[in-house]
């Protein structure tokens, strides 16, 4: 799509006019950049500089979006190298020289100079990661330029009583869409808050988030993005600061379906060190092919009304249900066979079950110790276990809890905001509680494929807010979210989700692309639009 490019004529003198073009970073997609890099209109160095300028303008200053925790000190040098390679006719592939922002829980190679901390000072104390995550290496091999680390709800929202998008290191991420930011209703959702806000604010063309339950889908939905939460195991978690080995997955947050599919294609693949990826060789592919000529014709789409279309239960405004109902009608008009309603037998259990929390509390304790020992130098900061993190947070309560605590008129020197970590400390993977919780979750999760089979459905469709992400979280299956509308009160975006069987990314991407092809362009944040971050080139 060329919506992001417009020609402006800069009159230099009365006799000579030169034509310059302007790339609007609020709308520029990976595909746009790919074209501009390929025909020599822009260089990667120019792109990295332009994104750094955009971050400089509105991350800590300007609108204070706080979507980025740190930028990559080596990104410009890498961009230079990639520009040189391109000139010499060497290409690392279709995404050679494209910038990307990644969540601050994905480790990058030490030579890239970026910390990886999940927003936490204790993890920072161990210094730079000592090796790259599996997907970090894949991105670099593909020629992507990781320009920075995105803010997040600390520990991917498994710290305790903190707000969406808040971390001790990164402070409060705020939606770019809502005037007045977080306190005016601009909750960016989480935990991949900085990834979502960053892409919507033109800090990067595309970002990676991670999801245990909702952390890609919810912030994508609040930033009018196309987001994919992949099947657990499609993308490796090695070198990603974990919550749960059972549920964690890493995926793209983008301005178009094609961009999301492209970045998913880069990071999907078998990693011998992550057993969850063992079946992935059968599925990982170039997912952009499913965006071509995508249509809803011939697809059977179910509408799980109970719980998921209920604004009271989901805790979201009624206008989202109205918009989702209109979307269902539109899907029928576009050729889908709609089955409405469908009943997911055990869905109601997710409203009361505490099983998922038990699983996550148990697995984060094991996973953090493994991450710290394999990917950080524990002798540098002495942080080797969850216990070390809790002790460190308490000792440095002023920085670990302050901003959040002050907002709530709590005493920041008292234990206030790491209840989940503290509860996790008491768990054991050998406990009966853990084993039976895992079993119960497997049973609840199985109701998703059972329902798809019973009604002979390809996918189900539902609003992205509310309890949408929990069944796919425990069933470990994918979700794709697309922009649906904007709240009348604040302008905050909201989305529509498609859910399917494990490894059904092909069908979900087809649905996302068909939706996109039949929808108006996504809106950019109005407060940024009058003076958008841009790159002028000849
Ligand atoms: C990583 O953290 C260290 C310690 O706080 C800091 O000095 C350094 O600037 C950080 N790196 C980046 C790229 O921000
Ligand atoms: C964090 O953000 C708040 C506003 O939300 C600001 O008042 C405070 O100074 C910030 N703290 C730091 C350490 O940047
Ligand atoms: C939504 O759920 C509430 C609470 O369970 C219930 O009272 C209400 O009837 C439901 N609304 C619809 C439209 O089903
Ligand atoms: C776990 O799930 C089972 C089956 O849904 C339920 O009976 C049980 O109460 C749940 N346990 C907890 C602790 O929520
Ligand atoms: C870890 O840090 C210690 C102390 O700074 C240093 O001696 C050692 O070489 C480091 N190990 C690795 C694997 O980087
Ligand atoms: C790149 C950037 O602006 N990083 C900032 C993120 O937020 C923390 C806390 O406010 C700042 O210290 C960083 O400079």
From TrEMBL:
All residue ranges annotated as the Amidase domain in the record: 46-486
Keyword terms: Signal
Superkingdom of the organism of origin: Eukaryota
Matches recorded under InterPro entries: Amidase_dom, AS_sf
Signal peptide interval: 1-20
Record flagged with keyword ATP-binding: no
Membrane-spanning parts: none
Pfam families: Amidase
Species lineage: Eukaryota, Fungi, Fungi incertae sedis, Mucoromycota, Mucoromycotina
Gene3D superfamilies per UniProt: Amidase signature (AS) domain
Protein name (database record): Amidase domain-containing protein
Region named Disordered: 519-538
């Amino acid at each position: 799509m060329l919506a992001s490019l417009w020609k402006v004529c800069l009159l230099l003198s009365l006799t000579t006019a030169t034509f310059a073009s302007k790339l609007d970073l609020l709308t520029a997609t990976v595909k746009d950049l790919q074209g501009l890099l390929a025909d020599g209109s822009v260089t990667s160095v120019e792109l990295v500089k332009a994104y750094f300028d955009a971050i400089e303008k509105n991350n800590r200053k300007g609108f204070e979006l706080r979507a980025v925790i740190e930028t990559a000190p080596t990104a410009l040098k890498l961009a230079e190298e990639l520009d040189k390679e391109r000139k010499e006719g060497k290409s690392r592939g279709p995404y050679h020289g494209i910038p990307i922002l990644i969540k601050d829980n994905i480790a990058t190679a030490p030579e890239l100079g970026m910390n990886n901390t999940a927003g936490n000072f204790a993890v920072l104390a161990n210094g730079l990661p000592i090796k790259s995550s599996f997907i970090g290496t894949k991105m670099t091999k593909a020629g992507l330029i990781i320009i920075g680390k995105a803010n997040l709800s600390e520990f991917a929202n498994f710290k305790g009583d903190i707000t969406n998008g808040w971390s001790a290191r990164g402070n409060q991420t705020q939606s770019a869409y809502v005037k007045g930011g977080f306190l005016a209703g601009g909750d960016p959702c989480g935990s991949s808050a900085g990834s979502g806000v960053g892409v919507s604010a033109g800090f990067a063309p595309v970002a990676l988030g991670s999801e245990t339950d909702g952390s890609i889908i919810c912030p994508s939905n609040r930033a009018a993005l196309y987001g994919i939460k992949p099947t657990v195991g499609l993308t490796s978690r090695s070198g990603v600061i974990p919550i749960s080995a059972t549920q964690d997955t890493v995926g793209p947050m983008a301005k178009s379906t094609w961009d999301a599919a492209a970045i998913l294609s880069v990071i999907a693949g078998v990693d011998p060190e992550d057993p969850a990826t063992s079946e992935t060789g059968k599925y990982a592919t170039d997912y952009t092919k499913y965006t071509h000529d995508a249509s809803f014709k011939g697809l059977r789409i179910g509408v799980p009304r109970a719980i998921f279309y209920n604004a009271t239960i989901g805790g979201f405004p009624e206008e989202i249900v109205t918009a989702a109902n209109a979307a269902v009608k539109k899907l029928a008009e576009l050729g889908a066979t709609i089955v409405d309603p469908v009943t997911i037998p055990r869905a109601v259990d997710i409203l009361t079950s505490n099983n998922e929390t038990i699983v996550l509390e148990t697995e984060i304790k094991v996973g953090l110790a493994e991450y710290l020992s394999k990917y950080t130098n524990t002798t540098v900061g002495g942080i080797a276990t969850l216990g070390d993190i809790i002790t460190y947070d308490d000792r440095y309560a002023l920085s670990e809890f302050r901003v959040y605590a002050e907002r709530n008129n709590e005493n920041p020197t008292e234990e206030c905001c790491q209840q989940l970590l503290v509860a996790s400390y008491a768990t054991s993977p050998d406990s009966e509680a853990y084993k039976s919780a895992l079993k119960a979750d497997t049973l609840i999760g199985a109701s998703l494929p059972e329902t798809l089979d019973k009604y002979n459905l390809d996918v189900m469709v539902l609003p992205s807010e509310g309890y949408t992400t929990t069944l796919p979280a425990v069933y470990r299956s994918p979700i794709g979210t697309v922009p649906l509308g904007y709240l009348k009160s604040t302008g905050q975006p909201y989305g529509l989700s498609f859910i399917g069987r494990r490894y059904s990314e092909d069908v979900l991407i087809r649905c996302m692309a068909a939706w996109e092809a039949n929808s108006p362009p996504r809106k950019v944040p109005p407060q940024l639009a009058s003076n958008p971050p841009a790159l002028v080139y000849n």
